């Protein structure tokens, strides 16, 4: 897959040590034809070759949403925090 086809924030699945993981792209690395992907369920970042990243539309669990909100706060990304809160927290009320 061409590294330019997927962008920051796109959700992808990929294999890491024989385990399927689901995360979102936080960085494109075109010179290495790879992505850096954050996986909410592990709280870790992984580097994945572009050819191994499969585009996905995930169904987020409450723990995933909380991890994303925590990440938005860590990054001091107020816009993302507001979007996550509006999209996911208001549904549960």
Automatic annotation (TrEMBL):
InterPro entries in the record: IDEAL_dom
The IDEAL domain, residue ranges: 53-88
Highest rank taxon of the organism: Bacteria
Protein name: IDEAL domain-containing protein
Origin species: Alicyclobacillus fastidiosus
Organism ancestry: Bacteria, Bacillati, Bacillota, Bacilli, Bacillales
């Amino acid at each position: 897959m061409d590294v330019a086809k997927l962008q920051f924030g796109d959700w992808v699945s990929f294999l890491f040590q024989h385990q399927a993981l689901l995360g979102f792209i936080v960085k494109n690395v075109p010179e290495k034809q790879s992505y850096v992907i954050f996986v909410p369920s592990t709280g870790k970042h992984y580097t994945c070759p572009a050819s191994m990243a499969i585009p996905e539309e995930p169904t987020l669990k409450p723990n995933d949403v909380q991890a994303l909100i925590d990440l938005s706060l860590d990054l001091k990304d107020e816009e993302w925090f507001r979007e996550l809160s509006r999209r996911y927290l208001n549904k549960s009320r």
